[in-house]
What we know:
Blueprint: H1 3-11, H2 13-26, H3 28-41, H4 43-56, H5 60-67, H6 69-90, E1 106-110, H7 129-138, E2 146-150, H8 151-160, H9 164-176
Antiparallel strand pairs: 1-2
Helix pairs in contact: 6-7
Amino acid sequence: xxxxQREWRKNNVEKSRGYGRKHYYKYRDKCLAYxxxxxxxHPEQVKDKTRRYNLAHPDYQHDYYMANKEHCNSKSxxxxxxxxxxxxxxxGGKCVCCGLNEWMFLTIDHIDKKxxxxxxxxxGKNITGYRLYMILRKxxxxxxxxxxxxxxxxxxxxxxxxxxxxxxxVDFLEVVx
Length: 177
């Protein structure tokens, strides 16, 4: 940029912002495609720039959140629900034990103890809910070691080691045989 252009922008801040906005909205798809491509091809530069910005503006995120609590919470909740739907759908969308398909009651169960090291944080606590869903999506939904269960089946398995639905199936098969 030439020095006289810099000077003009400095003296006409609102006008230059207006021109930028007009250009962005006119060519929004191209701007977004360029931005996404740059982020994909230069992840380290983007990460470094974000880190430097956050260091220079430590209170910005907190101040923004405090000023827009309801908006931030509703966006966060919507994103969490979208992520849960995505994960539940990737694991069949229904309880593998009883067949319940009401997503509000469905959770992800660990079939065996092999995956426990993936599902523990640095303090050794279980990673559940949103954080587990993020990890599973990042790992591209591994099918071995995880399954979709309703909350009742998952809790009963954790406490008693078996689910009453499976016991009923076994009892029924014994009666029939």
